[in-house]
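Batch manifest, entry 17 of 40.
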Amino acid sequence: MNNLSDFDLVRLSVGGNADAFEVLVNRHYAGVYRHAYKWCGLRQDAEDITQEVFAKLARNLKAFNLKSAFRTWLYRITVNTAKDYLRKNKTKHAYEATFAVEGHQKNPGPTQEQYVEAARMYRELGKLPQKQKAAMLLVFGEGMSHREAAAVLNCRETTISWRIFQARKKLNQTLGREI
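Output type: structure tokens
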């Protein structure tokens, strides 16, 4: 079943096949978690967001129209769930501490100065308006094209470009350098 496309897995899942849904979840879990973590910066919150995303997926899989990419639809759910979660829980982001501790455990190579600079970047990214933050995370954090990010955020490709332009301008001002 692992070699089936997302579309085939969705069809089977909607038809009641629990194994197909499990494969779909396993296939996309790491990407959803990674994106949720980039939104909130805290492991526990990212886990909670990821669980909520897949609960929503189970409830709303019938609504997927098979016309857009499944990944795009799933990332839209992830972005909206992360926004709602953060708004509802008013979580205080501890980017510096989280990034320094978790980043050090995963990659002992970078220097403390690099950790501090990355933490500063995440902190400033967190201060951006939600729409600019979402565009930056999808394009630079997830490696999506402007077109893919536009599909996730349900807006025009040019809107994504404008949001990124504005975000970079703000980040350049606050960081004091070009990014």
